[in-house]
User: What shape does this take?
Amino acid sequence: MPDSNKPLVGIVCCRKEIERHPFHVVGEKYIKAIHDYSGVTSVLIPSDDLSSMKSILNRLDGFLLTGSLSNVHPDRYSDTIKDSEMLIDPDRDEYVFSAVKQIIDMELPILSICRGFQEMNVIFGGSLYQSLENESDFKGHDFDRSASVEDQYDISHTVHFVQGGYLHQLTELKEAEVNSLHGQGVKELGQGLNIEALSHDGLVEAFTIKDAAGFNLSVQWHPEWKPEKSLISRKIFEAFGSSCLEYSKKHGR
Assistant: This one.
């Protein structure tokens, strides 16, 4: 498909300081995954430009919320920061929390990964464990930061799909092996969210929005890491891409 006819997906940037200068950044693996496996092209959205949000959303055929080393500020779920070294990104929080309800109302396809999964849970009234290791019985979901990248993103545990749920129907599987690179996780599930997958120890790992008309899926793991090696990853990106293409055609792009 020529690039000019590909659906356009927005990816909100993380705002971070690099060598004492502020940058808006997105991990290349996310961009490459949706380009290669969703059949879309993308535009990177600065997270501090709220004034242009509606104009940008009206031009899009889909939206991707990526993972990040930063976390949702605990203020968003009525908590306080327990670890002074926890990375936060208030600009991204502000943009995403302002954009998501509009995205859902527009029936714009949205795929949310890791931090994006946690953002979606909080937006719908849920809360998070700031540290699974210290605050919960869910252990071993984080990753060794001294390990090689290959080892960090290697298979970590099994997720079980809810019988008859979206992921079960999409893959025709009961379970799948996934990676695990998150220190935080769902404490209370947001209102109106349907659990789609649980980890081996019962932690919520995927959900959809019950009453949303457009495609939406939020996953805690990282399907963008080498999708060619994972059936579930390819299925997720293909479904997202198909929904974006359908949205594009519906709106005469």
